[in-house]
Write a structure and sequence with these properties.
75% helix; 2 strands; 2% strand; 7 helices; two-stranded parallel sheet; mainly alpha; single chain; 2 domains
């Protein structure tokens, strides 16, 4: 199922890529090939991520599920591991997935030379936009996804850890 979701998200990127390339040709603003490849990969990732968190078809529920209690989902999973109620595999996929899904953003911030002063607030705001988008799409009766502060936390940490790691690698090689 997740493979199909990713494949559909990638297929949505192609029209966007065509527009990007036409725009670059029209404006004659191609950068070096490696920079363009990085930008194109980020465009594909962003499109696939948007589809994954916002536009994949899911049921619309009467009420919006939400969690505004920090660490509530994480504690819930921990307690269910102890009781052997939920599959450890599902828990790891959910928690680690929320952390890893945003790592390309942190790497891209480093690649683009964002300062720590810019990367930190962006790492905090971008996942808020993910959750806000999920809330808005529910209000529009398009899809119901859980708005969860723990998702925000893990997504933010994913961006920041990837940024820090990429900056560390960059510093070592310079």
């Amino acid at each position: 199922m997740n493979h199909l979701i990713f494949q559909q998200g990638i297929s949505l990127a192609f029209p966007i890529l065509i527009i990007y390339i036409i725009n670059k040709l029209f404006r004659k603003s191609f950068k070096s090939i490696d920079k363009e490849i990085i930008n194109i990969l980020m465009l594909i990732y962003t499109t696939a991520l948007s589809y994954f968190i916002w536009f994949q078809p899911v049921a619309v529920l009467d009420q919006q599920p939400y969690n505004f209690t920090l660490f509530s989902t994480i504690v819930f999973y921990y307690n269910h591991i102890k009781m052997d109620y939920l599959s450890l595999n599902n828990i790891i996929i959910n928690l680690l997935g929320n952390l890893l899904i945003t790592t390309p953003i942190g790497i891209w911030f480093s690649y683009k030379g964002f300062s720590k002063k810019l990367a930190l607030p962006l790492a905090l705001v971008i996942p808020v936009l993910f959750e806000l988008g999920q809330f808005i799409l529910h209000q529009l009766n398009y899809a119901t996804r859980i708005v969860d502060i723990d998702d925000w936390l893990l997504n933010s940490l994913g961006i920041l850890l990837a940024y820090w790691l990429a900056q560390s690698i960059k510093t070592k090689h310079n």
